Amino acid sequence: MDMTLHDPLIIQSDHTLLLEVEHPGYGECRDFLATFAELVKSPEFIHTYRITPLSLWNAAALEIPLVEIEYELRYFSRYDIPENVLVDIEEWYNSYGKVVLVKDTPGRIRLVVDDPVILERLIHDAKLRSYWLELEGNEFLVDEVERGELKHALVKTGFPVKDLCGYIPGIELDITLRDVDLDSKEFDLYDYQKEAVDAFHQAGRATGGNGIIVLPCGSGKTIIGLGVMSAISNNTLIISTNNVAVHQWRDEIIAKTHMKGEDVGEFTGLEKTIKPITITTYQMLTHRRSTDEPMQNLEIFRENGWGLIIYDEVHTLPAPVFRATAGIQARRRLGLTATLIREDGKEDEVFALIGPKRYDVPWKTLENMGYIAEAICTEYRIKLPADVEMEYAHATKRRKFRIAAENRAKLDLVRQLIINHPDDSILIIGQYISQVEGLSRELMVPIITGKTKNSMREELYSDFNTGKIRILVVSKVANFAVDLPDASMMIQVSGTFGSRQEEAQRLGRILRPKDRISYFYTLVSAGTVEQTFGINRQLYLVEQGYRYQIRYYST
Q1: pTM attached to this predicted model
Q2: Looking at the domain assignment, is residue 174 inside a domain?
Q3: Environment class of 552 (CB within 10 Å of its CB; exposed 0-12, middle 13-18, buried 19+)
Q4: Is 175 part of a structural domain of the chain?
Q5: pLDDT tens digits along 91-135
Q6: Can you tell me the distance from the alpha carbon of 210 to that of 201, in angstroms, rounded to the nearest whole number?
């Protein structure tokens, strides 16, 4: 069939969109869909998108005209668009902006509601009543400190707020990027990184300055963060996942901007220094000596004249930081992540309190452009030893998973994979401490766990990156924000049930651009609950466009 004679998109009544990859119009249609639909899966031939209220709120927040969405859908669609889809698109899109927050007198803001039906609903909604100071015509007067909590409450009612209150000016700080970094390498943002910075900043308008950048690990989200910092040039607070990531952010800031070391502080368990640029961790912000004490470190959000707050790995945002973020809606907020998937389903809260998705590029698109490494994903299924089969049969469901995950037969395969890849830099990662400690002993290679001191972690990561060590065993502490550019192979011996979020993070550890193919091996016990949970993880990679091979291994 001549594919130029038909269109690449099939629109179905369940709000899913099927895009034909081999069609000549694929690229143009893909870029269009990314503006208002969620990519659900992207295997070889057909990519699936879904239209949701949240995806259309994102489009409306980015001021993509509804008429443009409807026109382009008709242009690309192979068949007539189901009527219910067009009705729902219009309804969901138009629900954004039905309630608008604007400034009032100092300390107060106004919620403007032009639709009389929505106005009546909000007046009589018992959950919202505590937010209203006064009702003047079609406008609610609200205490400014309730800005975030009100946005959070309204998104739950299906009426996301268009927030035009703008931002308080942070303390000015001259942050400029180097043309040549401290390693004497030429430095500049890639085109897609510049696009991401522009999409967030919106030239300083009130409609910009908040939101999420979604890009795979290895694509330089930290560099985008530096670009945003330079565009805003205010005091900046950066929150990351662990102390190693804190040090990596600090190193990148000093190496690639003109900021001096004395201007960059670390607020961690080891060092509590507040500087114009301060880097901390989610754990540090939520630390308290006992459950009866308040989380005093959360006050850092309201101090020091921050003009920008960066949430690294924003999909891991813990509940207390969500609540703290509700109180700082007057500060610019940037979220960085490889996936907006939250296992707790709170994507709408991220939208309400951090902002809309501002920029997103499919993993395989960046791979095809050479910005991240090509990866081959393989799952090996291994039988349980005969003596373990009986234990497995009588175990509880939760115990079954651990028995399968710690299958001792995996060790032989790990050894074989290491032999098969003599030139690769290999990470071996697992969920259970006893398992990874055993692998470290048997293979006689170094290990990093939560118990490893930060100085030792950084030394081992450095030795790995410089080639002094070729194989490193790591626990789940390496899931997040670890810069290992020379890692070209990962062996995953166990994981957190069926966590798609974890799968994305682990694959990302080996996607830094390099001249060789990367390999991602997952080891599961055949015919067990581990294999069942693994299907969820496996499908996530397939949906990102990766070919996923299944192999069987017998000892």
Answers
A1: 0.77
A2: no
A3: exposed
A4: no
A5: 999 999 899 999 999 899 999 999 999 999 999 999 999 999 999
A6: 8
Which CATH number characterizes residue 334's domain? 3.40.50.300
Taking phi over 0 as left and psi of -120 to 50 as alpha, with beta for the rest, 205 belongs to: beta
- Lookup: tokens for 97: 């902006």
Residue 331 and residue 424 share a domain: no
Q: What's the pLDDT tens digit per position in 416-425?
A: 999 999 999 9
Least confident of 90-94, 304-308, 359-363, 399-403: 359-363
Residues contacting 261, CB < 8 A, separation 6+: 254
Q: Please, which contacts does 192-195 make with residues 24 or more away whose CB atoms are closer than 8 Å?
A: 192/219, 192/361, 192/366, 192/369, 192/371, 193/220, 193/223, 193/224, 193/227, 194/227, 195/359
**Do 87 and 116 reside in the same domain of the chain?**
no
Token pair in block for residue 225? 């963060």
Question: Which residues form the domain of 355?
Answer: 191-361
Average pLDDT over residues 172-188: 94
Q: Of 314, 329, 361, which marks where a domain is finished?
A: 361
| Domains held by the chain: number | 4
Same domain for 81 and 31: yes
158 and 220, same domain (yes or no): no
Write the DSSP assignment of 240-280 as a string of letters. ESSHHHHHHHHHHHHHHBS--GGGEEEESSS-B---SEEEE
Q: Strand runs (DSSP E) across 98-235, as ranges? A: 99-103, 108-113, 134-136, 139-143, 161-163, 210-214
Whether 420 and 428 have beta carbons less than 8 Å apart is answered as no
Q: What is the pLDDT of residues 449-506, one digit of tens each?
A: 888 887 888 888 889 888 899 999 988 776 555 666 678 898 999 887 555 666 667 7
- Tokens 């301060």 belong to 278
Q: Please name the residues in contact with 355: beta carbons below 8 A apart, sequence gap of 6 or more.
A: 61, 209, 210, 211, 212, 333, 335
User: Do 119 and 229 have their domain in common?
Assistant: no
Judgement on whether residues 444 and 505 belong to the same structural domain of the protein: yes
| Termini Cα distance of the chain | 48
- Closest residue by Cα to residue 345 from 315, 323, 324, 312: 315
Q: Which two tokens stand for residue 206?
A: 């009130």
One-letter amino acid identity for 381?
Answer: R
In the listed set 95, 113, 134, which residue is the last one of a domain according to the structure?
A: 95
Query: Is residue 176 a part of any domain in this protein?
Result: no
**Rounded mean pLDDT, 54-60:** 90
CA distance 349 to 240: 19
Same domain, residue pair 91 and 103: no
Question: Of 438, 547, 548, whose CA–CA distance to 493 is shortest?
Answer: 438
Quick check: is 170 in a domain?
A: no
Based on the fold, state whether residues 107 and 76 are members of the same structural domain: no
Q: Tokens 């308040």 label which residue? A: 294
List, in order, residues 6 or more apart from 318 with CB less than 8 Å away. Answer: 282, 286
CB 486 within 8 A of CB 513: no
Strand-pair partners of 379? 522, 550
Q: Report the distance separating Cα 5 and Cα 146, nearest Å.
A: 55
